[in-house]
Amino acid sequence: MLAKRIIPCLDVKEGRVVKGIQFVNLRDAGDPVELAAFYDQQGADELVFLDISASHEGRETMVDVVEQVAGQLAIPFTVGGGINSLADMKRILRAGADKVSLNTAAVLRPELITEGADFFGSQCIVVAIDAKYDEALRSWRVFTHGGRKPTEWEVIAWAKEAVKRGAGEILLTSMDQDGEKKGFDLPLTKAVGEAVTVPVIASGGAGSKEDFDPVFKEAKADAALAASIFHYKETSVAEVKSFLKQKGVEVR
Amino acid sequence: MIGIVDYGMGNLHSVSKALERLNYDYFISEKQDELAKADGLILPGVGSFKDAMEILRKENLDKFLTNWASLGKPILGICLGMQLLFDKSEENGETTGLSLLKGKVRRFKGVTETGERYKVPHMGWNRLQFHQEHSLLDQVEEGHVYFVHSYVVQEMDKAELLASCDYDVIVPAVVGKNNVLGTQFHPEKSSSVGMKLLENFASMVTKEKEAKIHE
């Protein structure tokens, strides 16, 4: 049986981790390489780096960061943000990332998923979906551009389409729950998980270690991602895992 | 010195970085005359069995590797690299492998015998179960390691199964027959458990080198 994965997410801007992370034992709190090593020691099963650089130089710096992280980490890591072409994917994967995550670019040009999957294999291609409940649609709607733009896509239909085109994993963020710290969006996670044949990473809403139990047991997520609760030390990866173990959830 | 076989199908970076961290010398090459100078080989691999065998055949690397194995020199296949060591695979039509180990590579069914669906690829951390003692597993923890694959080795010789995990079927995870070794998971992405295994392989290679000097 596969262990449920706990994945910290780091926002990286111009080569530095942002969000004002407060770690005591690190020399340089904003260094993505040191933070990656820190989470690795804590038992993180994987890491996600989100490149939120605004400039071209920032994106180039990201390639250096990926290379340095690859030299330090013995766990898989995914890089997302600003990947718009096969050339972007090549740069990031050759620098040592294990997977790339596509979001807006995949909605604008779904062929990109297939191009990536054909070249690198489906296991390398994660499609990230930002989902928000829509009363009129009576379901969730896909948003792009960092959650600013609504699209025509209903989430389940888009998730299926992405998988059909070669996505090896879905990173599903609930915009409704994100930042609320009231727990993951269980109905959304469950609905997408039942609709697709690839692993689903639930994201958005984690407020405490307790929130990780229902997302695995009820919503059947394969992995759960969180940022602020780990960054602000409200809990730790190790604490979440020992809690889950007590609850009978298989973790590493 | 470990030679990493570059035939265009591997994630060479992560394996080489792992060896760097362990402080073992390595080089990456696709040339037989260079690879022949190594004391041990790593055959990585991501992608399809058929494409991989076609490239190996085209470059005559298939014969080189079979010959290498017959000389008793250590070789470690990783992921697809491990599957290539077996007789054949059904991926994209039946393809003959290097046939250094007995067994066939089949796709995960995606449905259990009782009709329950499960996800393919088998992706994530799964727990190892050891079947026998082996120097490759020396001081390796029987813990979780990282898998990403849609095909699985079946009908292999039990004597050559060193460790497995459970994912609907018994998934051969570490295999070995004398000097021919393989891991279905990615040791270079499997934290301390995987790094220890890689270190064990590297020290087997070092012993091989010392034996050669004493000859």
From TrEMBL, chain A:
It comes from the Bacteria. Keywords: Amino-acid biosynthesis, Cytoplasm, Histidine biosynthesis, Lyase. Its EC number is 4.3.2.10. GO terms for molecular function: imidazoleglycerol-phosphate synthase activity; lyase activity. One of its GO terms (biological process) is L-histidine biosynthetic process. PANTHER family: IMIDAZOLE GLYCEROL PHOSPHATE SYNTHASE HISHF (PTHR21235:SF2), IMIDAZOLE GLYCEROL PHOSPHATE SYNTHASE SUBUNIT HISF/H IGP SYNTHASE SUBUNIT HISF/H (PTHR21235). It is found in: Cytoplasm. Signal peptide: none annotated. It catalyses: 5-[(5-phospho-1-deoxy-D-ribulos-1-ylimino)methylamino]-1-(5-phospho-beta-D-ribosyl)imidazole-4-carboxamide + L-glutamine = D-erythro-1-(imidazol-4-yl)glycerol 3-phosphate + 5-amino-1-(5-phospho-beta-D-ribosyl)imidazole-4-carboxamide + L-glutamate + H(+). IGPS catalyzes the conversion of PRFAR and glutamine to IGP, AICAR and glutamate. The HisF subunit catalyzes the cyclization activity that produces IGP and AICAR from PRFAR using the ammonia provided by the HisH subunit. GO terms for cellular component: cytoplasm. Pathway: Amino-acid biosynthesis; L-histidine biosynthesis; L-histidine from 5-phospho-alpha-D-ribose 1-diphosphate: step 5/9. Heterodimer of HisH and HisF. The active site is at 11, 130. This is Imidazole glycerol phosphate synthase subunit HisF. Its main location: cytoplasm. Pfam families: His_biosynth. Coiled coil: none annotated. It comes from Anaerobacillus isosaccharinicus.
From TrEMBL, chain B:
GO terms for molecular function: glutaminase activity; imidazoleglycerol-phosphate synthase activity; lyase activity. Pathway: Amino-acid biosynthesis; L-histidine biosynthesis; L-histidine from 5-phospho-alpha-D-ribose 1-diphosphate: step 5/9. It is found in: Cytoplasm. Gene3D superfamilies: 3.40.50.880. The active site is at residues 79, 186, 188. It comes from the Bacteria. GO terms for cellular component: cytoplasm. IGPS catalyzes the conversion of PRFAR and glutamine to IGP, AICAR and glutamate. The HisH subunit catalyzes the hydrolysis of glutamine to glutamate and ammonia as part of the synthesis of IGP and AICAR. The resulting ammonia molecule is channeled to the active site of HisF. Heterodimer of HisH and HisF. This is Imidazole glycerol phosphate synthase subunit HisH. It comes from Anaerobacillus isosaccharinicus. The gene is hisH.
